[in-house]
Amino acid sequence: MNFCTQCSAKVTLRIPEGDGRPRFVCDSCGAIHYENPKMVVGTLPVMDDTILLCRRAIEPRRNMWTLPAGWLENGETLSDCAVRETLEEAWAQVADLQPYVLVNLPFINQLYFIYRARLINDDFHSGSESLEVKLFSPAEIPWDELAFSAISETLKWYCKDLEKAAFPFRVVDIGI
Amino acid sequence: MNFCTQCSAKVTLRIPEGDGRPRFVCDSCGAIHYENPKMVVGTLPVMDDTILLCRRAIEPRRNMWTLPAGWLENGETLSDCAVRETLEEAWAQVADLQPYVLVNLPFINQLYFIYRARLINDDFHSGSESLEVKLFSPAEIPWDELAFSAISETLKWYCKDLEKAAFPFRVVDIGI
Ligand SMILES: [Zn+2]
Ligand SMILES: [Zn+2]
What we know:
Order of helices and strands of chain A: EEEEEEEHEEEHE
Bound molecules: zinc ion
Protein name (chains A, B): ADP-ribose pyrophosphatase YjhB (NUDIX family)
Oligomer: homodimer
CATH superfamily of the largest domain in chain A: Nucleoside Triphosphate Pyrophosphohydrolase
Mean pLDDT of chain A: 97
CATH architecture of the largest domain in chain A: Alpha-Beta Complex
Low-confidence stretches of chain A: none
């Protein structure tokens, strides 16, 4: 960040009075520009004993496999976002959303919120952001070709939970 | 938002190519400025059958009661943030954090994530953002003087859950 969004003057990275952290401060108009973690929301769509994964058509991690997920937008609830992303990336319709894993990625200022969801039918296909959409049994999960650590972590928990047939909600920290 | 953070040119609110939502776009350098919901994280600190609440010393909602909570900062996990805010606002030490309620407030682009937590001792007192910090039994909760709907919602669920002595994690949508 170089310039103030309010008045276009140059900003300085410094700790404002009464604050404990450096912020981009505008000495011209006084505006303080806060930056906060952003949230990625998605689903782990399940049909019988298989899981739907998408092979990414876009960077980062083009060609790697992921769960359908994307940025939470202003004006949207978590479940709205999860359903929308699943539709956009896999043209897949899901129901019975259950909060499943929240992954903290503090080193990149991201959070992933993943719902377990029931895939309503197998009438899915790749959206513009996916090269391929496919169902995998737990044994078939391409662990070495997963796009993001938050996705590996979610799938790892899912495979463990499957054995006990219990899927408690969890907060997981990565990389700290 | 008026000016580009990268080059200081005036921004325009329009839908970028390949996107579905209006963004602040810079036609001079091409930067797209995304805005996403922000997360407030806090605790519901419990000691025996009482709940710790703070009376706000600052706007908005000065003088109203709230749970200790604040903005999730870059570089921070949810539990780090919850513990820090509880310390800053109530000088209270908590342990045994359990994910409890996630409140969606899409009309103001906010999310509240509240942990249930055990108050370690009664050696708490107001921080610079609180006028007063006090323990309330469920019957004493000042429902008409609570600062935010996300806090009322969390406390309402807590009182219901107390009756069954079961505290499942929930995602709650407000105002949609
Ligand atoms: Zn300025
Ligand atoms: Zn620009």
